[in-house]
């Protein structure tokens, strides 16, 4: 069912390895009717999963996958899918299919999804803890009939000790003293960096902060990219790009 964004965001930030929430149009929840809702959760049962359809950082992702659809209005990204371990083994495929049916009822005709194959490890006082083993998107290619469009471009990522990524956009806000830099600086000081002093150069402070907290730079080979048309008339939706055999391992 569709749930309020506040509840979906709280659940996702708590349980998804990225600990972040993108720009979202529709958020759907999976609830256990045999359990009472938790604090801040919608009526109907305990929230055990969230799927969010939203806007990618680069809107061209939607246009390239579906040249004949209007980005955001007719095509969206499956931005987040996170389920508690208590959900049955077939729950991921069932939830994905159910959420896409609900999105189709809202007028969405194309969905793009990405799978990050790079493992994520969070540093804790008790030692490193793997929060994501990396995945190939099996639920999309084999479970839901998505077309596999290959890998996104390779890039370098700054990975923080809490297993989250400091994006180039976020780092640039600090380096260039742009609006929004304060939240990025708070994020780094929360991980142990020294506060930035008045008048201190942003680029120099950022470099020192990343070194102090033990951030690492990872050569990321790209995410697996999938796309699928949904809803009435889906067979008439043209897919942009070449479809390849989906990875199996």
What descriptive keywords fit this protein?
249 residues, alpha+beta, six-stranded mixed β-sheet
Basic shape: globular
- Coarse structural class: alpha+beta
Helical residues, percent: 25-40%
Main pleated-sheet profile: 6 strands, mixed
Distance between the termini: 32 Å
Question: Can you characterise this structure?
Answer:
- This protein is of the alpha+beta class and 249 residues long.
- The protein is built from seven helices and eleven strands.
- It has helices spanning 5-15, 60-65, 91-105, 138-141, 168-175, 181-189, 202-213, and strands at 23-32, 46-55, 75-83, 110-115, 120-124, 127-132, 147-151, 155-159, 165-166, 216-220, 224-229.
- Strand 3, helix 3 and strand 4 form a beta-alpha-beta unit.
- The longest helix has 15 residues, at 91-105.
- The radius of gyration is 19 Å and the shape is globular.
Q: What's the short version?
A:
The mean pLDDT is 94.
Topology:
Blueprint: H1 5-15, E1 23-32, E2 46-55, H2 60-65, E3 75-83, H3 91-105, E4 110-115, E5 120-124, E6 127-132, H4 138-141, E7 147-151, E8 155-159, E9 165-166, H5 168-175, H6 181-189, H7 202-213, E10 216-220, E11 224-229
Parallel strand pairs: 3-4
Antiparallel strand pairs: 1-2, 2-3, 4-11, 5-6, 7-11, 8-9, 8-10
Helix pairs in contact: 5-6
